[in-house]
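re: ur question from earlier - yeah i can do the single chain one, its not a big deal. heres the input i used so u can compare w yours
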Amino acid sequence: MQKSFTKTQKLTFSAMYIAMYIVIMALTQSFAFGQYQIRIATILYALAFFNPFLIIPAGLANLMSNLFFGGLGIIDMLGGTLVGIITASLVYAVRKYNLPKWCLILPIIFIPGIVVPIYLSQLLAIPFLPLVVSLCIGQSVPAFVGYFLVQALEKRFYKSALLKS
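and the output i got, formated as tokens:
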């Protein structure tokens, strides 16, 4: 059961989503930018499973995060924006095309894990393949937690929808 949101509600949820992403990044930046880049904030990409209006905020949250904490300039900011939008879009596609929920794990691991090294390897003079491996390993944690978050939220909201009817 998908709830229809007003424009004001969508704007409010989007702002809260971006704020949560930035706060989580601020609290976890010590390991979010390390060798394995365990970006706990990317758990939030999984929330696009429920509503496509969170796709653009996912990109904007990544843009602002890279602006405030990344320090690698405009290429990283634009690349992060693109990664957030593509990842959240593919997470939503899992629901839209009625794929098994576990499939949402794949874009959360592999889009950041493969796309980010395309430009990061050039910016940091690090070989592409080792960077892919380390980013995919780092993204595994938020991908699986995101999956379990979706499972829990769906169960919680589906149950309450049944109780109200």
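The radius of gyration is 16 Å. not sure if urs matches, ping me
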